[in-house]
Design brief:
Elements: E1 2-7, H1 13-30, E2 34-38, H2 46-52, E3 58-62, H3 69-81, E4 87-89, H4 97-110, E5 117-124, H5 128-145, E6 149-156, H6 161-168, E7 175-179, H7 186-192, E8 198-199, H8 207-228
Parallel strand pairs: 1-2, 1-3, 3-4, 5-6, 5-7, 7-8
Helix pairs in contact: 1-8, 4-5
Pfam family, one: CbiX
Organism: Mycolicibacterium obuense
Protein name: Cobalamin biosynthesis protein CbiX
Amino acid sequence: MSCVLVAHGTRKPQGVELIGDLAARVSELVKNPVHVAFVDVIGPTPTEVLDAHAGEPAVLVPAFLARGYHVSTDIPAHVGASDHPAVTVTPALGPDPALVRVVVERLVESGWRTDDSVILAAAGTSDPAALRDLHTTAAWVSATIGTRVELAFAATGEPRVADAVTALRQPGRRVVVASYLLSEGLFQDRLRNSGADVVTEPLGRHPGISRLIAQRFLRARLPSLARQG
C-alpha cells in the first residue's frame, strides 16, 4: 500500500520541512512509508508520486484544513493524469472534531482565558464549500469553549484578521487569535502582526495532526485490505 500526503507547496523552508516531518511521524503510526507530494509551487506532484508507485494500491490524504480548489479540482486532476490503477483519496482534514481539539489545546497552552474574545484565523478561500467547512469549524470551537468565535482570514476573504481584532477590541478584554494554519510562514506572520494580545501557534506540529492523518490512511486502507483478502 502506498501512502501519499499531499500538501499545497511553498518556497518557505519551514513549510516544506513541516510536511516532511509530518510524513515521518505518520509513517511511524501507520507502519508504512508515507510519500510527500505538492499540488503547487514545488514538486514532486501527486501524478509523479503515483506513477512511481503504480504497482500497489495508493491512499492519498490531502493535508488541507478545509475543502477548496486544490482538494476538489487539483488533486483529482493529478490522480486522473497518473497511470495508477487504484487510488483512494480521503477527505480534507477538516472539519473534524480532532482538529477542534487541537485548536482548543493550542488556545489553552497559549494562556487563553474564558473572558477573552476569540478569532479563528484561516488562510482564506473563495470556494463556497471551503467557507462552509471553516464556518463549521468556528462553530464547533465556539461550542467547545463556550464563547462566540469569530472567523477571519489572513489572505482571501473578509474580514481580515487585523480588522476583526480591531472590531473586537474592548477596554479590559483581550483578543486572542487562534491560528487555523498548519505551518509557520507569511500567513502566520500576519496573525502575529494583527494587533491581537495572544496568537496561538500553528497546528501542524501538534501530535493530534499526525494522529488525524494516520487515521485517514488507516480507515481508507481497510476496504482495500478487505478486497485483497
